[in-house]
Design goal:
The protein is α/β, with parallel strands linked by helices. The protein folds into 2 domains: 228 residues, TIM Barrel (Alpha-Beta Barrel); 31 residues, no CATH class. It has 11 helices and 8 strands. Bound molecules: 3-methyl-2-oxobutanoic acid (KIV) and sodium ion (NA). It comes from Sphingopyxis macrogoltabida (Sphingomonas macrogoltabidus).
Length: 264
């Protein structure tokens, strides 16, 4: 199976919904790859992998190493790597240098940046120089220190308008698709109708051109998840059960058995 390319993703606007999940490690990438159009090496690895309080602490090295692992574990999906906080906001040149490093060191197809109008010149700069960019508007977790939390965005008329303008600016700057996170559904629908590139919703609307979730959230690895997460699995109890059985068998010396030892 040939790997999906950015132009083919772009062509999916208004067509069959795009399936996207996050991946950070090689084995999970292998398991997700057959079912997904895109794998996002999200900076959500801050919380999921590293136990950090938010994504602000993520480094370029983290994204490069996990991005490379996910590319090695996938054959079909387009792999997108999040640019970490502080690696792209300073200037288009800074963004280009760091995005180029991520593509070189991982083999990923594109990068994702959070932001709207302010980021448009940067998105244009990268796109014109061979780096496809996915946008991310609405609830942008890297701005947690400004926003003060992760509440739904766009409740006031003014904020709603500003989010739509952000998405339009990002699309016009050349983004090949845009994540819309944590906004009132009407905003997600309006953006999806207005922009020429596919929109990928998370806490947005089923009418977006695709959906993304944090894999560990949808697998049921965590006790607390945002409202927009549906748990498609209950991995925490699967792990709990297996590890409890292992511990019991070690303590009772019923593991290992003859099957697992080298007799002689
Ligand atoms: O980091 C991440 O996982 C993301 C998605 C939730 C869109 O940015
Ligand atoms: Na992210």
């Amino acid at each position: 199976m040939k790997r999906l390319t950015v132009p083919r993703i772009r062509q999916r606007k208004g067509g069959e919904p795009i399936v996207m999940l996050t991946a950070y490690t090689v084995r999970m990438a292998q398991l997700l790859d057959p079912h997904c159009d895109m794998l996002l090496v999200g900076d959500s690895l801050a919380q999921v992998i590293y136990g950090l309080p938010h994504t602000v602490g993520v480094t370029m090295d983290m994204m490069a190493l996990h991005g490379a692992a996910v590319v090695r574990g996938s054959y079909h999906a387009a792999v997108i790597v999040d640019m970490p906080f502080g690696s792209y906001e300073g200037s288009p040149q800074q963004a280009f240098d760091n995005a180029a490093r991520l593509l070189k060191e991982t083999g990923a197809a594109a990068v994702k940046v959070e932001g709207g109008k302010v980021l448009a010149p940067t998105i244009e700069f990268l796109t014109q120089r061979g780096i496809p960019v996915m946008g991310h508007v609405g609830l942008t977790p890297q701005a947690v220190n400004i926003l003060g939390g992760y509440g739904v965005r766009g409740k006031s008329e003014e904020e709603a308008r500003s989010i739509v303008e952000d998405a339009v600016a990002v699309a016009q700057a050349g983004a090949f698709s845009i994540v819309i996170e944590g906004v009132l559904e009407s905003i997600a629908i309006e953006i999806t109708e207005k922009v020429a590139c596919p929109t990928i919703g998370i806490g947005a609307s089923a009418q977006c051109d695709g959906q993304v979730l944090v894999t560990d959230d949808m697998l049921g690895m965590f006790e607390r998840v945002p409202k927009f997460v549906k748990r498609f699995g209950d991995m925490a109890s699967v792990v709990n059960g297996a590890v409890k059985d292992y511990a019991d068998e070690v303590r009772s010396r019923s593991f290992p058995t003859d099957d697992q030892i080298y007799a002689g």
